[in-house]
Amino acid sequence: MKKLIPILLITLSIGLQSCNSTVKSVYRDDFRSASKAEIEKIHKEVNAKNSNKSILFLTQIYKGEKIIISQNGKTIYSEYPITNLNNRIATYLSFNNQQDLLLKDNNSKKEILIPSKQSSKHKYIYVMKKVNKGKFQFIITYSNTLRPI
């Protein structure tokens, strides 16, 4: 019994930490898809027709704070996106899904890693920011379905 107590305490502390995690990953393809014409338009607009390209969408709760996205030490995006309240999209861009992607939010001082192991399996990655009791949480949805924009 004495040997079980430390194991239970460690398990409990890991469980509590995961409940308060700043990044949550979700895998979904069960929502309504955009039309084929809209899919083609978006792929052409961001040059993401190849299988080694995925599209990153910054969705909700972006209010003009600086977001820096880098890959392999090079900055591929550095702007101040604002979520459009009509379509709930702040911005979107394509990236090489064969390399890890690092997203830095200067407002929350958080860095989110999108590993190539996940992005190479999914064409669309949606990153939503959520604020709960003053704490930021990021929800990353990996999908092969483009939501209507």
Topology overview:
Elements (H helix, E strand, L loop, with lengths): L3 H16 L3 E5 L8 H10 L7 E6 L8 E5 L2 E6 L11 E6 L4 E5 L4 E5 L1 H4 L4 E9 L2 E9 L6
Parallel strand pairs: 1-9, 2-8
Antiparallel strand pairs: 2-5, 3-4, 3-6, 6-7, 8-9
Detailed description of the structure:
The chain has three helices and nine strands; from the N terminus they run αβαββββββαββ. With 149 residues, the chain is of the alpha+beta class. The protein has a five-stranded mixed β-sheet, with no helix packed on it. The chain has a four-stranded antiparallel β-sheet with strand order 4-3-6-7. β8 (124-132) and β9 form a beta hairpin. It is globular and about 40 Å long.
Strand order of the largest sheet: 1-9-8-2-5
- Structural class computed from helices and strand pairing: alpha+beta
- The helix tally amounts to 3
Radius of gyration: 18 Å
SSE string: HEHEEEEEEHEE
* Average pLDDT over all residues: 86
> Strand fraction band?
35-45%
Stretches where pLDDT is under 50 for at least 5 consecutive residues are 1-20
List descriptors:
single chain; 149 residues; alpha+beta; 5-stranded mixed sheet; 4-stranded antiparallel sheet; 3 helices; 9 strands; globular; disordered N terminus
